[in-house]
């Protein structure tokens, strides 16, 4: 008779442990998903800024073609960014600046920002979280 009583108590203990740990496990899974999404968008944003800076560094322009050059550069950034899934390219904001350095070579600086939202509203994490990436390249042609 004692043996059956111990088995019953153990089954109840397992259910209690599961009830206590299940919310923690679900929270860890959601944090992992948000962290993975954050890394994905951050890497995609960094790739887009790098591609834009590279395009700007390899294509010349003058005052007559500056508008076309800037439009093509932003199209290259947008094309790289939209190649990724589950990212809204309409929310991407880019800033392109050019300046000459000490060696009279043009430096192209591309800055891109993207508002990223978590799946769950976590305490102490702002919504949206503005991600920003910057890439600088010197013209080499």
What report would you give on this structure?
- There is one protein chain.
- Helix 1 (2-58) runs antiparallel to helix 2.
- 13% of the residues are buried.
- The mean pLDDT is 87.
- This protein has 141 residues and is an alpha+beta fold.
- The N and C termini lie far apart (89 Å).
- It has one domain.
- A hairpin with a 5-residue loop joins strand 1 and strand 2 (106-116).
- Strands 1-2-3 form a three-stranded antiparallel beta sheet, covered by helices on one side.
- The radius of gyration is 25 Å and the shape is rod-shaped.
- The protein has helices spanning 2-58, 66-82; strands at residues 93-100, 106-116, 129-138.
- The chain contains two helices and three strands; from the N terminus they run ααβββ.
Describe how the helices and strands are arranged.
Elements: H1 2-58, H2 66-82, E1 93-100, E2 106-116, E3 129-138
Antiparallel strand pairs: 1-2, 2-3
Helix pairs in contact: 1-2
- Secondary-structure class: alpha+beta
Helix percentage: 40-55%
Total strands = 3
Q: Averaged pLDDT, please?
A: 87
Number of helices: 2
* Order of strands in the sheet with most strands: 1-2-3
Pfam families: TadE (PF07811)
Protein name: TadE-like protein
Organism: Anatilimnocola aggregata
Domain TadE-like: 12-53
Briefly characterize the structure.
With 141 residues, this protein is an alpha+beta fold.
